[in-house]
């Protein structure tokens, strides 16, 4: 019999719509004004912090909905924004600078919905609010770092070739190697030119000594700067992922700048601390023959440097760097056998081989772990850009007990929070060069809320216009199309709420409005085909059957070509373009389902298999 569906098809349609509504439902409950309290570096949020914050708010007569401590963060919910703002000032004053107190909006999703993975839509920067950073890479530091590596390489090469030199000096625009006679200088020049063909070498006498000056070519300078920028972009993306931000925007701007947008982030201090931190580790041998007292007085051995540990005690380390953080592929925090914080390190193959070869020959000697971090200063360089200060601190000194491999651990860390922070930075990677935030903009939730309201109004007005037209023009069949249209919107919102990483932006709302029109367009094609069959004298049941059958190819062609365009936009687009493409892809698939399967199921249920003399279409 024509126009009858088997039971399983009806159940499939009901199941899809029910699941979509279930996961779209969290968007109906809104959000609570909240405070998010996290510890600054080295400070943990504990139950005592929760008690202190609650007592402060209670004494001030401010009521709270709930206060929960999870993942080393405290989230306090309020009944209204006035209590939220007043509570922030009080709590921040009581807790002090050791804690970061930030305004936030927490989803008010019921516990049973949250238990099955129901969460509201993730909103983009333009709808949710958040922070926008414009960062500039310090290319001078990137080039200096390359030259420091050149110094280490030259020393190693000359030592292995048994070519005696007086010194290898890192200068502003290159590396100067000083020899005592020209014969040795000429031998070194011949060897280094073969070993480093990408460098430019020139003879440069210095008093009675023969000098050899090495600089990078223009091509290598360009490649070094490009590498520094691209690596920093990759590492910042990794750090953003560690922060758990949905649909962030990280892209280059010009030759030295990076744009970062973090939707929904209210904890700007935490974001800046993680994104801007240029932290890495260096492993060096302790110079056990050096006189620490003499070194503190300024008499440091020529191949050593003076450092301080966390307690301010002086430590003399060799200049030679055994290994740097560039070889770290994974890092995780944990506790040692004495319940003290530690960071577990995994190295790549090259780093593991180097560490194994070095420690094999130095069992019984002391090796130090140096934490290196660049911090911006108030001083400006000759190019007008802010200068960075290099802070180095010995966080661990341990005796090499046996040959180390690709995995080992470092201890001597003050707190578990600091261990987690250090592991995050090392896991995400060390920035190739320091960056400074040259522009910071915060988009408040109020502006985002206005965009949401404007977008919803556009969607509602568009739907009302379409519903009115379909009802008047296609009568009862128009009502069927309107029900399918509502189901289409529910499916889009439900899928976007369910899919990890899907984010709703203002262009995304535009994509939903567009798919509403496309969904109706499919129904118009079907209904007009049914009308055409009726005019040709077909019976009602045959007209319905042929209408859906003949319109299928046209609808499929139109939607597939649009789907291909949306996929290309998603593949090559960034930020708002990608957000638009996501909603368009989901909307196209949902509209095809509701138009071809959903409306057909409803039409079959209402009119299928019945003797009809006419149709209300």
UniProtKB/TrEMBL annotation:
Ranges of residues in domain Protein translocase subunit SecDF P1: 229-288
Matching InterPro entries: Acrflvin-R (IPR001036), SecD (IPR005791), SecD-TM (IPR027398), SecD/SecF_arch_bac (IPR022813), SecD/SecF_CS (IPR022646), SecD_1st (IPR048631), SecD_SecF_C (IPR048634), SecD_SecF_C_bact (IPR055344)
Endpoints of the signal sequence: none
Primary location recorded for the protein, binned into one broad class: membrane
Top-level lineage group: Bacteria
Domain SecD export protein N-terminal TM, first and last residues per copy: 2-103
Keyword tRNA-binding listed: no
Membrane topology qualifier: Multi-pass membrane protein
Keywords of the record: Cell membrane, Membrane, Protein transport, Translocation, Transmembrane, Transmembrane helix, Transport
Domain SecDF P1 head subdomain: 305-433
Limits of the Protein export membrane protein SecD/SecF C-terminal domain: 435-596
Main function: Part of the Sec protein translocase complex. Interacts with the SecYEG preprotein conducting channel. SecDF uses the proton motive force (PMF) to complete protein translocation after the ATP-dependent function of SecA.
Family: Belongs to the SecD/SecF family. SecD subfamily.
NCBIfam families in UniProt: 2A0604s01, secD
Protein name per Swiss-Prot or TrEMBL: Protein translocase subunit SecD
């Amino acid at each position: 019999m024509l126009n009858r569906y088997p039971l399983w098809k009806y159940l499939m349609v009901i199941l899809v719509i029910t699941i979509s509504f279930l996961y779209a439902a969290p968007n109906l409950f809104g959000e609570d004004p909240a405070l998010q309290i996290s510890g600054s570096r080295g400070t943990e949020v504990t139950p005592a912090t929760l008690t202190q914050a609650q007592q402060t708010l209670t004494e001030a007569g401010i009521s709270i909905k709930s206060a929960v401590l999870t993942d080393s963060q405290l989230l306090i919910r309020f009944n209204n924004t006035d209590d939220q703002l007043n509570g922030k000032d009080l709590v921040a004053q009581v807790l002090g600078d050791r804690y970061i107190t930030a305004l936030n909006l927490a989803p008010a999703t019921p516990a049973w919905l949250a238990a099955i993975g129901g969460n509201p839509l993730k909103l983009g920067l333009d709808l949710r609010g958040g922070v926008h950073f414009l960062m500039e890479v310090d290319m001078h530091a990137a080039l200096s770092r390359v030259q420091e590596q050149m110094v280490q390489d030259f020393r190693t090469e000359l030592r292995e070739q048994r070519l005696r030199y007086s010194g290898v000096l890192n200068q502003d625009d290159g590396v100067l190697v000083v020899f005592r006679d020209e014969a040795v200088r000429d031998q070194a020049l011949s060897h280094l030119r073969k070993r480093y063909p990408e460098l430019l070498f020139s003879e440069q006498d210095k008093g009675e000594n023969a000098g050899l000056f090495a600089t990078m070519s223009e091509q290598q300078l360009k490649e070094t700067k490009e590498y520094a920028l691209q690596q920093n972009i990759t590492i910042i993306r990794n750090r953003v992922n560690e922060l758990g931000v949905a649909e962030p925007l990280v892209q280059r701007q010009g030759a030295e700048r990076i744009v970062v947008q973090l939707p929904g982030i209210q904890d700007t201090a935490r974001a800046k601390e993680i994104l801007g931190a240029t932290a890495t580790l260096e492993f060096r041998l302790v110079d056990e023959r050096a006189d620490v007292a003499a070194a503190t007085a300024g008499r440091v051995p020529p191949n050593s440097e003076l450092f301080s540990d966390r307690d301010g005690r002086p430590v003399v380390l060799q200049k030679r760097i055994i290994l740097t953080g560039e070889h770290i592929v994974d890092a995780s925090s944990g506790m040692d056998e004495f319940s003290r914080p530690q960071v577990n390190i995994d190295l790549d193959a090259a780093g593991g081989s180097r560490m194994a070869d070095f420690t094999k020959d130095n069992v019984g000697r002391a090796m130090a772990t140096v934490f290196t971090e660049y911090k911006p200063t108030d001083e400006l360089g000759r190019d007008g850009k802010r200068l960075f200060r290099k802070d180095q601190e010995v966080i661990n000194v341990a005796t090499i007990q046996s040959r180390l491999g690709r995995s080992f651990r470092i201890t001597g860390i003050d707190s578990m929070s600091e261990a987690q922070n250090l592991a995050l930075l090392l896991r995400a990677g060390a920035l190739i060069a320091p960056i400074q935030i040259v522009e910071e903009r915060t988009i408040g939730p109020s502006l985002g809320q206005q965009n949401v309201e404007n977008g919803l109004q556009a969607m509602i007005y568009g739907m009302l216009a379409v519903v009115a037209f379909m009802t008047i023009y296609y009568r009862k069949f128009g009502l069927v199309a309107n029900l399918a249209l509502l189901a289409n919107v529910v499916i889009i919102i439900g899928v976007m709420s369910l899919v990890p990483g899907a984010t709703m932006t203002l262009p995304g709302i535009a994509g939903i409005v567009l798919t509403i029109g496309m969904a109706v367009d499919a129904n118009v094609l079907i209904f007009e085909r049914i009308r055409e069959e009726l005019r040709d004298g077909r019976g009602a049941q045959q007209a319905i059957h042929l209408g859906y059958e003949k319109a299928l190819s046209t609808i499929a062609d139109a939607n597939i070509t649009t789907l291909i365009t949306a996929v290309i936009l998603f593949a090559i687009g960034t930020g708002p373009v990608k957000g638009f493409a996501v909603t368009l892809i989901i909307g196209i698939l949902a509209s095809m389902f509701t138009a071809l399967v959903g409306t057909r199921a409803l039409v079959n249920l209402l009119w299928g298999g019945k003797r009809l003399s006419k149709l209300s279409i």
